[in-house]
Design brief:
GO molecular function: isomerase activity; metal ion binding
Distance between the termini: 42 Å
Shape: globular
Radius of gyration: 17 Å
Number of domains: 2
Strand content: 5-15%
CATH topology of the largest domain: Four Helix Bundle (Hemerythrin (Met), subunit A)
Largest sheet: 3 strands, mixed
InterPro entries: DinB/YfiT-like, Maleyloyr_isom, MDMPI_metal-binding
Number of strands: 3
CATH class of the largest domain: Mainly Alpha
Number of helices: 10
Protein name: Maleylpyruvate isomerase family mycothiol-dependent enzyme
Keywords: Isomerase, Pyruvate
Length: 215
């Protein structure tokens, strides 16, 4: 997928996410997201912070000293104090721009909007389209850069020793017992979300369920 193709997915995905948020009630805005410790409002606020240059990133670090996860969370919580309509407008304002946060590429920006859109929609029982081809590209990016082990803003799941096979697009990666399912569900898994585990099949999926089961 070329850089132009990546941005051609990001923009409509941002619009869809903003449209979904615009229709939420106050109670839904305060609902827990798939990100542990984050509300839907926090995630929406984070999605308005996708174009930080070096100066803004350094300022966030000075305001919230600590690890990367702490800086990201507290920056989102600061922004989340804004009214819901301003957060929606902030996401809409990113449409058409190819700026991204310092230190990342368009592929990380793609992964963010795909995954965080589901962080908002899934716990609310709402549907938000995720194009399978784009989900596969993001899944490959996450996996090839070390997956949840190096993507520090994502939870780490014990995913070593499995082969991931998308059933709705031509993508597979890894070696071992197979975990099969839609590319969107595989992307959620690779970014530390177990919410799509019931959509996955194969010997590897059964093994992973046992690994994740409470002791």
């Amino acid at each position: 997928m070329s850089d132009d193709d990546v941005w051609a997915v990001i923009d409509p995905q941002r619009r869809r996410t903003a449209d979904l948020l615009a229709g939420l009630s106050g109670e839904q805005w305060d609902h827990p997201s798939l990100c542990e410790g984050w509300t839907v409002r926090d995630v929406a606020a984070h999605l308005t912070l996708q174009q930080l240059g070096l100066g803004a990133a350094l300022l966030s670090g000075l305001r919230h000293p600590g690890g990367l996860n702490h800086v990201i969370l507290e920056s989102a919580r600061d922004r989340a104090r804004r009214p819901a309509d301003r957060l929606v407008a902030g996401i809409r304002a990113t449409v058409g721009s190819r700026r991204h946060n310092v230190g990342v590429t368009s592929l990380e920006t793609l992964t963010d909007i795909l995954v965080h859109g589901q962080d908002i929609a899934v716990p609310l029982g709402l549907e938000l389209e995720m194009p399978p081809e784009a989900a596969a590209v993001a899944a490959e990016r996450v996996r090839s850069t070390g997956g949840t082990r190096t993507a520090r803003v994502f939870r780490h799941l014990p995913l070593e020793g499995f082969r991931f096979v998308a059933t709705d697009v031509s993508w597979a990666a890894g070696e071992g017992p197979e975990i099969r399912g839609p590319a969107a569900a595989l992307l959620l898994l690779l970014t530390g979300r177990g919410a799509g585990l019931d959509r996955l099949t194969g010997d590897g999926a059964e093994m992973l369920r046992r690994r994740l089961a409470p002791a």
